[in-house]
Amino acid sequence: MPKEVPTLDLMDRQLSTASTAFGVHCPHGVWVVHASSPVGRATAGDARTAGVATEIAGDGPVVLVFHGTPGSRLDAKFWSAAAADAGVEARFVGFDRPGYGAAPSQPGRSLSTVAEQATAVVDGQVRLLGVSGGGPFALTTAERMGDCALSVTIASGLGPPECGLGALTITRGMTEAEVNAWVAEIIASELPATIGDDVLDLFLASQKEGIRRPDGIAEDVLTLREPWTTDLVAITAPVTLFHAVDDESCPIDGARFLARTLPRAELVEWPDGGHMAAASHLAEVLHRVVA
Fold first, then answer.
1. pLDDT in tens, 26-69
2. What is the pTM of this model?
3. DSSP assignment, residue 61?
């Protein structure tokens, strides 16, 4: 795999350098995936998920994916392809947070409102996978799901703001209008047509879907810079935190704080790789997801 992953992830300030078995896109609503049902079987969602679009890919235990900032439901295809390469069987379910992809914006949304939507996307016991800016949403969802969350895996996730905002530090003190303008300027940057790697090209496609409009990114920024209301001690699922020591975009101090605070947490520190270190450790992450 290439060592440099082109990305517009706001958690990665290096803006220019940084086989799916089954797929369903529901642009006007959501499919609720039942953990015990065969691939392709789902039931309609409820009012909490109105307008949320999902993507389902792969076969095996259900993994609910929380994309980065930006990203989209299409992360499910990326993780499914990476899992196939790693010999891991899982059914990945991705969903657009409000303002991303096919989901309408939701000004004023919070970690808890997104968690409420996430719990309506899947039914039964599932595993949670959060990446970068998706990490806090995954943890809050785990708190809400209780015993239905079998495990949580976080790769290069952002910690509470008191541990450092990394790439988002620049937004401290910005008004909402200023955040919107800042995001609009960033997403104007062009992403390459291809990375030249079939799996990473799926990640690139998800990034492109996530920057079609600025709403989701701006709403993420406004949410992630605020103090968390998540009761970390109430999370009963085992949590694995993967993080590179030299990640300047999401400081490792956040991951270390979470490892000390969560009741059942393990921190795996990578010596290098920066914010995109997971791209070189996909098999390691995926095997832990389904362990």
1. 332 333 343 444 333 233 333 344 456 788 988 999 999 999 99
2. 0.86
3. S
Does residue 2 lie within any of the structural domains? Answer: no
**What's the structural domain count of the chain?**
1
**184: Cα within 13 Å, side-chain hemisphere:** 6
**Dihedral angle of Cα 19, 24, 27, 30, to the nearest 10 degrees:** -120
Number of neighbouring beta carbons within 10 Å of residue 192: 10
Q: Which domain holds residue 211?
A: 31-289
282 neighbors 86 (Cβ within 8 angstroms): yes
Q: Which two tokens stand for residue 220?
A: 């993420």
Neighbours of 2 (CB within 10 A): 11
CATH code of the domain containing 173: 3.40.50.1820
Q: H-helix or E-strand containing 265?
A: strand 265-270
The single-letter DSSP state of residue 264 is T
Supply the DSSP symbol for 176: H
How many of the other CB atoms lie within 10 Å of CB of 231?
Answer: 10
Please report where in the chains the tokens 């921190």 appear, as a residue.
267
Find all residues with CB under 8 Å of 117, minimum gap 6, and list them. 48, 49, 52, 95, 97, 98
Collapse the DSSP code of 64 into the 3-class scheme (helix H, G, I; strand E, B; otherwise coil) and give the result. strand
Mean pLDDT of the chain: 85
Find the DSSP H helices in the chain.
Answer: 75-86, 111-121, 135-145, 176-187, 198-210, 215-224, 252-261, 282-289
Whether the predicted pLDDT of 271 surpasses 90: yes
The answer to whether residue 40 is domain-embedded is: yes
Residue 275 to residue 217: CA distance in whole angstroms: 18
Tokens standing for 185? 């300027």
Q: Are 192 and 4 spatial neighbours (Cβ–Cβ below 8 Å)?
A: no
